[in-house]
């Protein structure tokens, strides 16, 4: 078994064992073995900025050359580990890092041990993989930053517009339900006026943390603007969405935000709308917004639903 960590050192890549002992300095080999794959691999790996596609391209090119049965890859940007082929007993495991950028963990497995020559070849091929992966990672980070609200840590309005269209397309194609929630912090202006804008910012951050902690992986939360948030609940019928909304309302009402040496709480009003076949992005949003208006005018700290789809 071979465990190594890639770190860039003075223009090259330094291999480090799991015990943090430097093994050797690795530079891409000038000796093609075989020549065709060695020559074309860098060009092929530069054809995409999608992490999963890059790994599949790498696997397609080198599997027959190395003779392994399974490849697995884990990356911070991926919600699940990518598994190609079937896992076997003997393995080569690598932690990949370039320019202090974590670009994931890659593991190759097969039924028999890897020879020293094969490990050397694997590490030479990985030298050709790490820079395309770094480019993918930096691109994904930039893409994520463009659709992320920095204060709440949630997706922003632009991402919500895209997410809502995606849910509608999925619902039409698969006949699958989904629900939209609009959440508004009650009396937010009073929080800012009485406690200061730092307290208002803390309320926004606390909302973001709570929403991220309570939602399923298939759901998505957004800061729509100001003190207003939206949730897209995939594969969720109207009745289930109402239960989610009530759990959120209760949890937020129990939330305590630290503001200097004191703490404060707040409540929210929530509008709920379930998707119906006649909906488009504008109509389902208007229904959820109408439900929110009803919740606000029913005394706040409550939930309301638009029943147009039922």
TrEMBL record:
InterPro entries: Diguanylate_Cyclase, GGDEF_dom, Nucleotide_cyclase, Rev_trsase/Diguanyl_cyclase. It catalyses: 2 GTP = 3',3'-c-di-GMP + 2 diphosphate. One of its GO terms (biological process) is cell adhesion involved in single-species biofilm formation. CDD domains: GGDEF (cd01949). It is an enzyme of class 2 (transferase). GO terms for cellular component: plasma membrane. Pfam families: GGDEF. PROSITE patterns: GGDEF. SUPFAM superfamilies: Nucleotide cyclase. It comes from the Bacteria. Residues 176-308 form the GGDEF domain. GO terms for molecular function: diguanylate cyclase activity. Its EC number is 2.7.7.65. Its cofactor is Mg(2+). This is diguanylate cyclase. It comes from Methylophaga lonarensis MPL. The lineage of its organism: Bacteria, Pseudomonadati, Pseudomonadota, Gammaproteobacteria, Thiotrichales.
């Amino acid at each position: 078994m071979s465990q190594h960590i890639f770190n860039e050192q003075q223009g090259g890549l330094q291999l480090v064992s799991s015990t943090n002992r430097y093994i050797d300095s690795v530079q891409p080999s000038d000796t093609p073995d075989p020549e065709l794959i060695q020559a074309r691999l860098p060009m092929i790996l530069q054809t995409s900025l999608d992490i999963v596609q890059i790994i599949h391209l790498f696997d397609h090119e080198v599997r027959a050359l190395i003779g392994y049965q399974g490849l697995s890859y884990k990356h911070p940007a991926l919600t699940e580990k990518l598994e190609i082929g079937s896992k076997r007993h003997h393995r080569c495991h690598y932690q990949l890092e370039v320019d202090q950028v974590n670009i994931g963990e890659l593991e190759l497995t097969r039924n028999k041990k890897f020879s020293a020559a094969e490990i050397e070849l694997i590490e030479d091929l990985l030298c050709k993989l790490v820079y395309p992966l770094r480019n993918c990672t930096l691109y994904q980070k930039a893409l994520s930053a463009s659709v992320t609200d920095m204060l709440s840590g949630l997706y922003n309005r632009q991402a919500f517009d895209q997410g809502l269209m995606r849910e509608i397309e999925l619902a039409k194609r698969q006949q699958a339900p989904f629900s939209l929630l609009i959440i508004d912090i009650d009396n937010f202006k009073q929080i800012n006026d009485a406690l200061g804008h730092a307290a208002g910012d803390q309320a926004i951050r606390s909302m973001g943390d709570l929403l991220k902690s309570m939602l399923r992986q298939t759901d998505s939360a957004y800061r729509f603007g100001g003190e207003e948030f939206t949730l897209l609940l995939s594969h969720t019928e109207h009745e289930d969405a109402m239960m989610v909304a009530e759990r959120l309302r209760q949890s937020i009402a129990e939330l305590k935000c630290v503001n200097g040496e004191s703490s404060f709480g707040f409540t929210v009003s929530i509008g709920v709308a379930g998707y119906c076949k006649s909906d488009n992005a504008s109509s389902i949003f208007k229904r959820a917004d109408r439900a929110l208006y009803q919740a606000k005018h029913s005394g706040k700290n409550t939930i309301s639903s638009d029943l147009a789809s039922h």
